[in-house]
UniProtKB/TrEMBL annotation:
Residues 5-75 form the MIP18 family-like domain. InterPro entries: FSCA_dom_sf (IPR034904), MIP18-like (IPR002744), Mrp/NBP35_ATP-bd (IPR019591), NUBPL-like (IPR044304), P-loop_NTPase (IPR027417), YlxH/NBP35 (IPR033756). This is Iron-sulfur cluster carrier protein. GO terms for molecular function: 4 iron, 4 sulfur cluster binding; ATP binding; ATP hydrolysis activity; ATP-dependent FeS chaperone activity; metal ion binding. Residues 87-108 are annotated as: Disordered. ATP binds at G120, K121, G122, G123, V124, G125, K126, S127. Belongs to the Mrp/NBP35 ATP-binding proteins family. The keyword Transport does not apply. It comes from Gemmobacter aquatilis.
């Protein structure tokens, strides 16, 4: 099939929408894929009502595309992202249990707890803490999922040592990958080359929602979400749409990192997401040669800040070359033995004992 994206969009642009315009000029087409005789895409409407009104458009689009040379199959999915007071919208959601959001944040079926791991700025080790904590919790018998929601720089495929496109047997449900006892999904698995995927659309909100709701997470005690750094749309969407158990904020002991951490804390508080505590990463450094203890980025700043804000201080994680080497090699250090693995085991135990993991 030599059809181009432009050919397909041109055919779709000839379909008139109720209320004027066409699906292309109204920017409704998402995730367009053209692959050996199959054309698939999503028509994303603003509301469930609009999706219902556009049902004839779906039929017309299918007929128009099937008439193009070489097209054997056309798969169109209608989805709506707006709330509805009426019946559930046609959507891409898995299972059938989720319904469009009405009112406040909703619980995700099958997942007991959701904890976001955030930081005010990049590079403080938020992804490292997420992967290691996930592995440490799994080692203590918890059923753990890890969602890498860092759309700007997903690092979990590297840190967890898996990177392949997840299967989707029915074109809707996404089967997550497994690594080190953790059920894993990352934006990085989907954001390859120039392929159009559903969550590459302009709406980060839709992308995150799909990663939480369309992935077949199974029954989980806890889903950890590795957030992008800072205080942006992903954080907002997550906390507004889903019932969060809480957030953990990672910081290094430095003043500047702490200033940023304060912004993250402030954001979670404004979003009414309980802050479960602060973690100090890159804390003590023990020289592997002489055993001397050094505090390269300072020490204790996060604990002091936690006390000041009356928030739990969850622990210190040492600065250790093995952390980076293990992360780069795809086996988090918490999967092995030694002082860093023990520090993560303590953090995991603390969360389990506190009833949040
Ligand atoms: N405790 C530690 N000891 C040694 N190296 C560490 C430690 N924590 C993180 N690193 C290393 O620091 C780098 C940044 O860590 P990481 O990617 O986890 O940070 P991040 O906060 O998630 O950054 P970003 O948000 O920009 O992705 C990585 O190379 C990681 O291996």
């Amino acid at each position: 099939m030599n059809l181009s994206r432009e050919d397909v969009l041109a055919a779709l642009a000839r379909i008139a929408l109720p209320g004027g315009g066409d699906p292309v000029s109204r920017d409704l087409i998402r995730a367009l894929r053209i692959e050996s005789g199959l054309i698939s895409f999503v028509i994303e409407t603003a509301t469930p009502e609009e999706a219902r009104a556009y049902a004839p458009v779906q039929v017309q689009a299918e007929a128009a595309l099937r008439a193009l040379p070489g097209v054997e199959k056309v798969q169109i999915v209608m989805t709506a992202h707006g709330p509805s007071a009426k019946a559930p919208a046609p959507s891409l959601k898995i299972g059938g249990h989720p319904t469009p959001q009405q009112g406040g944040p909703k619980k995700v079926s099958g997942i007991d707890r959701i904890i976001a791991i955030g930081s005010g700025k990049g590079g403080v080790g938020k992804s490292t803490v997420s992967s290691n904590l996930a592995v440490a919790l799994a080692r203590q018998g918890r059923r753990v999922g890890l969602l890498d929601a860092d759309i700007y720089g997903p690092s979990q495929p590297r840190m967890m040592g898996v990177n392949k496109r997840p299967a989707s047997p029915d074109g809707k449900t996404i089967i997550p990958l497994q690594a080190h006892g953790v059920t894993l999904m990352s934006m990085g698995f989907m954001l390859k080359e120039d392929e159009a995927v559903i969550w590459r659309g302009p709406m980060l909100m839709g992308a995150l929602q799909q990663l939480i709701e369309q992935v077949a997470w199974g029954e989980l005690d806890i889903l950890l979400i590795d957030l992008p750094p800072g205080t942006g749309d992903i954080q907002l969407t997550l906390c507004q749409r889903f019932q969060m158990t809480g957030a953990i904020v990672v910081s290094t002991p430095q003043d500047v990192a702490l200033l940023d951490a304060r912004k993250a804390l402030d954001m979670f508080q404004k979003l009414k997401t309980p802050v479960l505590g602060l973690v100090e990463n890159m804390s003590t450094y023990i020289c592997p040669n002489c055993g001397h203890e050094a505090h390269i980025f300072g020490h204790g700043g996060v604990a002091t800040e936690a006390r000041r804000l009356d928030l739990p201080f969850l622990g210190e994680l040492p600065l250790d070359l093995s952390v980076r080497l293990a992360g780069d090699a795809g086996t988090p250090v918490a999967a092995g033995e030694g002082p860093v693995a023990e520090a993560y085991a303590r953090l995991a135990r603390r969360l389990i004992d506190g009833g949040v993991a």
